[in-house]
Structure formats: C-alpha cells, structure tokens
Design brief:
The structure is a single chain. The chain is mostly helical. It has one domain. The protein is 42% helix and 0% strand. It is built from 3 helices and no strands. Helix 1 (18-27) packs across helix 3. It binds protoporphyrin IX containing FE. Protoporphyrin IX containing FE binds at residues 1-2, 4-5, 7, 12-13, 24-25, 30, 36-37, 40-42, 46, 57. GO terms for molecular function: electron transfer activity; heme binding. InterPro entries: Cyt_c-like_dom_sf.
Length: 65
C-alpha cells in the first residue's frame, strides 16, 4: 500500500482547487494524472459523497495544517 498522503493545507492536496479535489475523489485520478487504486484508497466510496459532503471535507482539510 502507498503511504497515506498529507491531506492538509500544508501538503500536496492543499494546493488543489475545490474542483480538482472533487474530480479526484469522484474519478480516482489526481490532477497530476495518477490513477488511485480503489483497493488502497476507497475512491469508489468517496465518488458517492454529495457535493455538500465533499465541500465540507475540502473546507476542513484547508483549515488544518
Ligand atoms: C473520507 C475519506 C477519505 C478521503 C476524503 C480521502 C482523501 C484522499 C485524497 C484526496 C487522496 C489523494 C492524495 C494525493 O494524491 O496526494 C487520497 C489518497 C490515499 N488515501 Fe484516502 N481518503 C479517504 C479515505 C481513505 C481510507 C479509508 C484509506 C485506507 C484505508 C485511504 C488511504 C489512502 C491511500 C493509501 C492513498 C494514496 C493512494 C495513491 O497514492 O495511490 N484513504 N485520499
């Protein structure tokens, strides 16, 4: 399994726009083009989250360091 990434404002994910964050958690493909394996990171689960749920996660991760 790859190392669990830093999702906070100080990490790589902290540089993503909200649209990029939504796209990654719905398609499993990151802005750099890396396809996440659903066996390592359950993106098929996050793909089912509502806009409001993903926006809440994005706002929270942006708020922490
Ligand atoms: C609400 C739940 C979750 C959210 C919002 C979330 C979010 C993310 C995001 C945004 C990434 C991409 C980071 C990057 O490429 O820099 C990621 C990757 C990853 N996540 Fe999650 N995650 C969740 C649940 C989980 C769970 C339950 C696990 C493990 C059991 C997990 C393990 C991983 C791993 C191993 C990666 C790296 C995958 C790779 O690089 O191929 N995540 N996660």
């Amino acid at each position: 399994m790859p190392p669990v990434p830093n999702l906070t404002s100080t990490g790589n994910v902290g540089k993503w726009t909200k649209a990029q964050f939504f796209a990654t958690l719905r398609t499993g493909k990151t802005p750099s083009g890396h396809q996440i394996d659903n066996e390592n990171m359950p993106w098929k689960m996050t793909a089912q989250y509502s806009d409001k749920e993903l926006a809440s996660l994005y706002q929270y991760f942006q708020s922490i360091r």
